[in-house]
Amino acid sequence: MNIAFESPSQSDVRQLIEDLDAYQVPLYPAESHHGVDIAVLEQPNVLFGVVRSDDGQALACGAIVLEAQYGELKRMYTRPEQRGKGIARRLLEFLEVQAQQRGCKAFALETGYLQTDAIKLYERCGYALCGPFGDYREDPNSVFMRKIILATAV
User: Fold this and answer.
1) Where is the signal peptide, in residue numbers (predicted)?
2) What are the pLDDT digits (tens) for 106-136?
3) pTM for this predicted structure
4) Which has the least CB within 10 A, 15, 25, 60, 80?
5) Are strands 106-112 and 71-78 parallel, antiparallel or unpaired?
């Protein structure tokens, strides 16, 4: 398994994003969809990672949008047949480390309340429930989470 920054506009990576949308769009009303498009994912303040198998197949993707006060996790998706193998956790750790190296000390995310496996993953990785942040508003379909990175003594 290999994790690297890649362009989200590649056809196999676009397919991951389309699969994510195909899964989520029917679950929630339109006003509760907060996914960003590929143009946003290509901005310089976005760290977009792709997990590939040893033979090059795109297995998962995810991004952190670096804002002034935090990095927002966006577009995390792992192919269903690849879930339960630690791929999403490794991708999340990769993105967090890369964001920290760029000075990010806090992370936030919004996900749907029906994404129970994702919520459990985020909790295991140190994320805690919080209220809306940034431009988000209270939404019964949304779960908001954050993680603060504490400074460590050297």
Assistant:
1) none
2) 999 999 999 999 999 999 999 999 999 999 9
3) 0.93
4) 80
5) parallel
